[in-house]
Specification:
Blueprint lengths: L12 H20 L6 H17 L5 H8 L3 H13 L3 E5 L7 E5 L1 H22 L5 H9 L3
Antiparallel strand pairs: 1-2
Helix pairs in contact: 1-5, 2-3, 2-5, 3-4
């Protein structure tokens, strides 16, 4: 099979996916600014909440890094920021004294609820003119 050649970058699905992701993230950052969150902070709060429900205990930072695909060093920095702001709590793990279990504070849960409304708004506006959202989600789910 002969390698495909493109005459312009818009023929590459990878390039288009990359551009779309960047544009979505910019829109998300712009809207989340209104509630004093960054996209990474939102992803950390939402991942911590979801993993807490799934694991029946607060996740460790490594769990959040794996779930969000965010570098563990970035996770560590953002956890400290969120803890300083009172949105996230850290407690030593009972079984591994090197690890911290994460949980949302009441204020963190409130902020997450605000952010989820923002996410729905951004997604609705961003994907309005694109193909069927369910089909797009299904197709993207195949590659993640």
């Amino acid at each position: 099979m002969e390698p495909q050649t493109y005459t312009n970058p818009n023929q590459s699905l990878g390039f288009l996916l990359h551009q779309g992701a960047i544009n979505w993230r910019r829109a998300l950052a712009r809207e989340l600014r209104s509630i004093q969150l960054t996209p990474v902070q939102f992803f950390m709060l939402s991942s911590t909440s979801r993993l807490t429900s799934e694991l029946k205990q607060g996740p460790v930072q490594k769990d959040v890094a794996s779930n969000t695909l965010i570098d563990i060093n970035v996770v560590s920095q953002v956890v400290r920021q969120l803890e300083t702001r009172g949105l996230l709590l850290r407690e030593r793990d009972m079984h591994d004294k090197r690890a911290y279990r994460l949980s949302l504070s009441e204020e963190g849960l409130f902020k997450l609820r605000q952010a989820i409304k923002v996410i729905y708004k951004v997604d609705r506006e961003f994907f309005t003119d694109s193909m069927n959202g369910s089909l797009l989600a299904e197709e993207l789910g195949k590659i993640v």
